[in-house]
Amino acid sequence: MNEQDIKEYTPTLTLTRHTGLLLAYRQQHYSFTGEPRKLRAKLIEITIKNLILGWWGVRSMIINPAIIIENIINYFSYKKEYQAFMLSPKNYINKAKDAENKIAINSKNDEQREKRQLIVWSIILLVVMVVLTFIVVNYIT
Question: How far apart are CA 48 and CA 104, in angstroms?
Answer without folding.
Answer: 34
